[in-house]
Amino acid sequence: MNSAGRGGAAGRGVVVWLLVFTVALGSLVVSEVADRVPRTNADRVHALAGDFACPVCQGQSLGESDVPIARTIRSTIRTMVDQGRTDAEVRTMLVERFGEDIDYTPTGRGFTGMVWVLPVLVAVAAAAGLGFAITRWRSGVHPEVDDQRTDWPSTAKVVVGVTVVAVLAGVLVARAAGDRSAGDAITGDIRLSTRTLLAEAGMAAPEEADEIYTQVLELQPSNVEALAYRGWLRWRTDDRAAALIDLDDAVAMDDEYADVRVFRASALHADGDHAGAAVDLAVLDGLDAPPIVGDLLAASRLRQRVAGELAADGELLAALELLDSGLEARKRTGGGSEAALLAERGWLLAATRVPELVERGLENLDEAVAAGPTDPHALAYRAVVASTAASAAERVADVAADLEAFATLTDPPADLVAVLVSTGLLDG
Asked: How many domains are there within the chain?
């Protein structure tokens, strides 16, 4: 081969190798900068649930399905993530328990790694072949010219080199991308941005707040706080249908989020579904709710109002069970006064006018006044019941004490004043 031929071959080799390394480098860059889901715990759970098939559904992921086993698996994933377990550990657990078929995302190891390697191999080989053909065309070498023959040893080296580099690039892509669909985000953690938006929503006007909550959900679809508070906002602005959808979705997303249980219970109660509201409140009693939730319930008297409606509908037992559940929760946590719940329990029992139940109600009202000497409901209810009970003669002192204490209260509830006036215990 003459010097020109050798120079052309050398030039071709340089171009081909340049193309090979360009494609390999590009593959690695793509594998590192490809979009990944931000690593908030909620987003990791959401992403992992979307990466696995529901074991008993057709064509649905764990994130899409609402069958019991899917909810159970999502709860397990959430627990593992909250415990600090890695995505790889979650994947290993699911695959070991349900088999390889459950995993939508092929791993970068073993035979399934070829899913990642082969596309890179084909891309690199195609690029190298195209570059080689262009180089031959530019150098004026044509296959129909007999006396110009390819330097096959050099070509073989190029082919081998292309193959090796392509395989290595594919393996690196597989390792970088195949197991990390829920890995780190190159743009960083988005918790700060969503937390800032949620804080802004809390101070914004209703229409603007709705838009902010929606923006948070676009950034972080599994943000249960944004979904719950948007639902509550919509309920308060009379968009009831959309509100209940948001609240139901928030409960399905995280059935242990205390705030949404209060919001939905209040919405269901206002909508006449007192039994549904009681279920949410009973679930709430088993959760480790922040103190502000208890304060909200106490201020709104939601539990007492739901219990009163249940009793009015003939569901006295359900009403008492709801109040007892709240009392047990307060004893367990040591938070909040029991006076208001005991007073409601005694009032509902006395309202039956069954002598035995009235006496039991008076016992509850005595406990309520002892627990909360300034609780307006305990004072007013005991005064009314004691003045009309069979043992009224023995309760004169209690009635007088309750009325005197009630009179010293600042701005007592108007409905209690009306009750005392209607029974003649307080002057109108």
From this structure: 2
